[in-house]
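Ticket reopened. Same input as before:
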Amino acid sequence: MIIDHPLLGPRDAAEFVCLGDASLIERPDGRADDALEKFYQYQFIRDNPDGVHRELWFHEYGDRSWLVVTRNTLTHEIYNVELAREVAREMGRGR
Amino acid sequence: MTQRFRIGGGLVDRSKTLRFKFNGMSLEGHTGDTLASALLANGRRLVGRSFKYHRPRGIFSAGPEEPNALVTLRSGSSAEPNTRATTAELFDGLAASSQNHRLSLNFDLMAVGDFLSPFLSAGFYYKTFMWPKSFWEKVYEPAIRASAGLGALSGEPDPDIYDKGFIHCDILVVGAGAAGLAAALTAGKSGASVVLADEDFQIGGRLNAETHTINGKSGTAWARDAVGELEAMENVRIMPRTTVYGSFDHGVFGAIERCTDHLPSSNGRPRQILWRIYSKRSVLCSGATERPIAFPGNDRPGIMLAASVRTYANRYGVIPGKRVTVFTCCDDGWRTASDLIDKGVRVTAVLDTRDNVNFPQVPGARVELAERVVATRGRTGLAGIKLQRGDWIETDCLAVSGGWNPNVHLSCHQRGRPRWRDDIAAFVPGGSIPEGMKIAGAASGALTLSDAIGQGRSAAAEFASDLGYRTEAESKINASDEKTGISAFWSVSGAPGRAWVDFQNDVTVKDIAVAAREGYRSSEMLKRYTTAGMATDQGKTANVLALALLAEQTGKSVAEEGTTIYRPPYTAIPIGALAGRSRDKDFRPIRYTPSHRWAESQGAVFVETGNWLRAQWYPRRGEAHWRQSVDREVSETRRSVGICDVSTLGKIEIFGRDVGEFLDRVYANTFNTLAVGKIRYGLMLREDGIVYDDGTTARLGKRHFVMTTTTANAALVYRNLEFARQCLWPDLDVHLISATDGWAQYSVAGPNSRDLLRKVVEPSFDLSKENFPFMACAETTVFGGVPSRLFRISFSGELAYEIAVPAKYGRSMMERLMSVGEEFEATPYGTEALGVMRVEKGHFAGNELDGRTTALNLGLGRMVSKKKDCIGNVLSERPELNRSDAVKLSGFKPVNRSGMLTAGAHFLSPGQDETMGNDQGWMSSVAYSPTLGHSIGLGFIARGDERRGETVRAVDLVRGKDVDVEIVSPHFYDPEGVRQRG
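Engineering reply: fixed in the latest deploy. New output:
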């Protein structure tokens, strides 16, 4: 596979490490009353769709960016590649 | 007489005679021959024995589809079994031998299996060797393995080297026949960068095997001119002897180039190169493969694919027989007859299964329409064929044509499913073709020459303009088009005798009928049950025939039946090529610490820790056993001072306004409050609450921390920190640099470490206990100005420091420490002594952090701060992880002090049965403590912290040990920490 890095252009997938579902960005608040249930869902309950999936990839043998790759798990077609930091900010994550 | 089957013409260079050996017999051929064509030129028809029945087999084809002529090339460590003689290029001195027979090729003892064949039908192994079960491993399997099989590996290391390479291009053209050459010319002229790859050593594909003309030139001459034109273009790379074996995602292709297989020796050059080709577009011009017809006795040497027979005549100037007959169901078979007659070869008869054919003149040949072959004879080579009407024809070569199967393979590697076309009775590429690929020529089902050239040109032109290159209108091509009429004919029915479908795996028409009768009615099931198409040729000649026969059995059409899935590789790839240079010591990169050479000069024994090589111990003269060296290193360190290379520990520099806050979130304990110039031990959790790493982190400045990680987890911790920084808290002002390789670091441990270091760091630096206490850090200089970092931390439990210098000064630092340490009798120590001292001190390490242990298990439950949110905090509170009977890190001493403990032992109470239900925990680390004079261990045992003094059994069923041990504190040595604070 080739991942079109937003900063570096097309790079071979072998340069990356795949972590999985991009929902891992949405880490719950550990101080909330229902934190245990929220973290249980966050850590252990994931979708594993056959089709379009948003995934976290780390450019380990490159610039060490975390990327959100929107990919079809059946065809390996890649629709979109974004910097995870920007995605995280759009999701409302900050400090 | 040599080469009695050689005739005139062809592309072999008769001025160059090559000598080679087959089964020890000396033979001759010419430059341009394959091993197969040279064997045929010498009249060698019998070249191998079949896999299951040991049937005599001959050369069947002239290409990579060959099922029969598998030979072992070369000998000794260079021996390569299962090589197709039809693709092996002849060279002077080549030695080949046949496979899969006992005694000799002509008289094979194992051929007795052939007489037992009525009992060896489809599913035979599954049905027969079921009982008794215990016989499978000891009796049946060894016997089957001894009788079946192909060539044998040498069992020696491969002496050749293999490389890997990467190529980027605009347009990849796979196959350099008429379509591929036309595509490459069009693409090349446009200015696009082009790679043209072909598995053959002679570019031109079937142009070299046929007698076509293009614009009045012979096909061969046209191909030669095209190659000349392409070679003159700087943007075109022609790669002969290169098989594109797989089509992967996003225009990536795998290819194998055979660089020196056609030479007597590699002479130090890589034998093969595994290429990864990155293409923007690709044109698949892989041609087509002829398929056989199944009829009784169709596997005798001398029965060949019809187009291959004329390939031998046209390209190699070799005739596979002197009285040739043709058996066909399509117009293409007739070309073999007319080409041979044109060359003066005697064609005895042409049999066509069709009843109404407009056929060419075949002077001298008996022509029979609506006829078929019902039997053959000849023990080790064809002698005659029997017609349906009952008479026999004397013949030594039967050319069989069942039509052409487009080579769709590479179009299928991305979920493509071939589509059946009735008009050409063949599967063509269908379903989802790889993105950016077009198929041209015979591979697409375009079976005439002018169609092939036209398709190649238009595919290339369209792609070139897609990519922004300009193409010009091309001159008209005038090609001699062949007739392509066919009426599908799969097998001769109603005649007795075995008819072979898959020659290499010995699958017959009857096997397929049996499979269908027994309910294996889908193509995928059929394949697995009968093994049709599962041999090394992957059924290139057999698959479609087998599917068609299955369709007949199940009453479906071939289109409905569909094909099995084609997967890479298209042809076999040697494991050596896939490994490339990654073998033996080069399997993965080796990382050496900056003072590695110094350690070598001291005779250190090294151990692999991840990619690193670390000194394990430093043997001295007179020490016969590693324990002697390690015991000495521990004792000397505790007595005076020892020095250990700890450069491999992960080091991460962290800068920014929010570093303290950031560390509070990634460590379980608090860091925000750490003063500048101080160090704190930190525990890192996974988000699921399990401890995964630990280390010390030093605050060098208000906004500058240096984190250390374990050697094994350096990359993982860094990755996780980046995740936290970029994905979880993107607006924290935190910046990371991996500095593991940047610094060489040495532990200086023991009562004399302070005095030793005073002679190393700049004289003005005050090392006194008051100024530089335990867990202090500072930046200073050494060698009169080289920057250095000093950390007062202790893993050994002694007064100890770690000193870091830029990596390039590592060896100098080690040498300096040793030379100024002479007066203290400083001892270098390795990872074993390091491990012994940490067990004595009760520090946990990788053995304890096995992915199951929590801070509570480690006795550090209170370190997980409940005042803040940090990674792993919430899920560490899961009830199951906080059971009152949770295991706790404890120390263990053998009750009988001379007893030796073993890691991996499980704890049981006295008298308990050795069952999982009674299991109370496990021993994770053991060491012989020279300090205490007996074996000690660390381990986890239920409620261990409340059971000090209790005796339990450490049972190691694997090593057969059962030792009574006392549960003690894990801190065996200086539990109050007086020494390290000294």
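The beta strands of chain A are 2-5, 9-12, 17-21, 52-58, 66-72, 78-83. The interface with chain B takes residues 1-2, 12, 17, 19, 24-25, 27-31, 35-36, 39-40, 42-44, 56, 58, 60, 64-66, 74-78, 83-85, 87-89, 93-95 of chain A (CB under 8 Å). Please confirm and we'll close it.
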